[in-house]
Amino acid sequence: MPELPEVEALAEFLRGHALGAVIGRVDVAAMSVLKTFDPPVTALQGRDVTGVERYGKYLAIDAGGLWLVVHLAKAGWLRWSDTPSQTPPRPGKGPLAIRVHLFTTDAETPAFDLTEAGTKKRLAVWVVDDPASVPGIARLGPDALTVTEPEFARIVRSVSSRIKTALTDQSLVAGIGNAYSDEILHTARISPFATAKNLTDEQVAALYDAMRSELVDAVERSVGQDAARLKGEKRSGMEVHGRAGQTCPVCGDTVREVAYAERSFQYCPTCQTGGKILADRRMSRLLK
Question: Which residue in 36, 185, 186, 240 is a FRET match for 19, CA 20 to 30 A apart?
Answer without folding.
Answer: 36
